[in-house]
Amino acid sequence: MKLCDLLNEKTIIPELRSTDKTDLINELIDLFKNDPRVNDLPKVRQRVLEREKIMSTGVGKSFAVPHGKTDGVNELICAFGKSSHPIEFDSLDQQPVHLVFLLVNHDSSVSMHIKLLSRISRLMTKDEFREKLIEAKTAEEIQQAFAIEEKDYLDL
Amino acid sequence: MPTKTKIIEPKKNAKNVLIATVGADKKAPKPKKVNLEYRVKSYFKYDSQLKKQFYVISIFTVKEFSSLNYEISVDVKKNKKNIDIHLLGLNTRQNFYMQARTASCDLFFEDLYGEHIVSIIKQDGNTNQFVIDYNIFKKEIKLKEFILPKKTKSTTFSDVEIITNLFTFKGE
Question: What residues of chain A lie within 8 A of the CB of B91, using their CB?
Answer without folding.
Answer: 110-111, 114
